[in-house]
Amino acid sequence: MADNNHGEGTVPFKIQHIDTTCHTYYKIIGDLSSNSPRLVVLHGGPGTGHEYLLPFSRLWHQFGIPVVFYDQIGCAASTHLPHTAGDDSLWQESLFLAELDNLLDSLQLRDGPGYHILGHSWGGRIAAAFAATQPRGLQRLVLASGIASSQSWVEGIQIIRRQLPSDTQLAINEEEQKGNFDSARFRDALDVFFRNYFCRAKPFPPKELLPAFKHMSEDKTVRETIAGPSPLNCTGSFRDWTCIPRLHQIAVPTLVYNGEFDTSNDITTVPFFEHIPRVRWITFPDAGHMCHLERPELTEKVLGLVGEFLTQEK
C-alpha cells in the first residue's frame, strides 16, 4: 500500500479578539486521496498533544484508513496562548469546534468519502459536541473513554477515589483542601491514582505518554483554565459543561468504549449509550483510561474494534 501522503504541517486559524493569526499543527498517516473516509483524531488533556494516540496510525496499515492527528490550539506544536490563562470567555467549546471546522476545511476532508472522528477523553467531549451539529461529511464517530458532562465525570472520579487505599484518599483530600497541588504528598497520592485508573501499563508511564506529561507541565494555560488546578476535579471554564441534551442529535453510527477501571467511569459513559440513536458500547476488562497503551494484546483489541467498526458496511 503506497504511503504517498504522509506529512505534517500547520493550517492558519484566526481567533476572534486575538490579534495574531494562530496555527493548528497536523500530522497525516496514509493517503488522503484513497477511497476510505479519513479518521480525524482528537486528543485528550486538555492540553496534551497528539503523540500518545499515535498507535492509532496503525489503522492505515491494517485497515487502509488514513489518519489525521492534530494538536489543539494552545498546546504541543500548535500556537500557544499563555497570555489568555484564566480567560474563561475564550476557552469554551466553541473555540475547539471552530478549530476542528477550520482543519476539516483547510485539508478538504469533507469532500469525497468524508471523514470519521475519534475523540479520546477530553477529545471525546469535543467530538460528541461536534457530531451533534450533524456536520457535513461525517461518517462515523468513536468516543474513546469519552466524557458526557463535567458533573458526571466528577461524580465518577469521586467513586474511584473511594476505592483508593485510605492513606491515599486522606493525602488527596487534605492536600486538595490546602490547595497544595504541587506538593510531594499530593503527587505521590496521584501516582497511585494514575497507575490504577489513568494508565495500567507496567512499567508506568509508557514512553508514549511522556510527551503528554511534558506538554502539560511546560504550559498549563489550557489545562488549568479549562479544568482547574486539580486533575481530580473540574473547576475551570468547563465546570458546567454538558453534551447530554444534544446527544440525541448525533446522526451517525457511534462506537463508545471505556475500561473497567477507567477515569471515564460508567456514570459518564451511560449517557452516550442512552441518548445516541445508533450506538454500541464496549468495556474492556482490566483496563484503565489508556486502553490503547496498556498491554500489547489490549492495544490489538482496541485497534481491531475501531478498525472493524470504521470499515463495516452501514
UniProtKB/TrEMBL annotation:
* Domain (AB hydrolase-1) ranges: 37-296
Any one GO molecular function term: peptidase activity
Keyword Hydrolase annotated: yes
The entry's keywords = Hydrolase
Gene3D superfamilies xrefs: alpha/beta hydrolase
The source's superkingdom equals Eukaryota
Pfam families in the cross-refs? Abhydrolase_1
GO CC annotations on file: membrane
Q: Which GO terms describe its biological process?
A: proteolysis
Cited PANTHER family: HYDROLASE, PUTATIVE (AFU_ORTHOLOGUE AFUA_2G14860)-RELATED, MONOACYLGLYCEROL LIPASE
Query: NCBIfam families given for it?
Result: pro_imino_pep_2
Q: Which family does the similarity line name?
A: Belongs to the peptidase S33 family.
- The protein depicted here goes by the name AB hydrolase-1 domain-containing protein
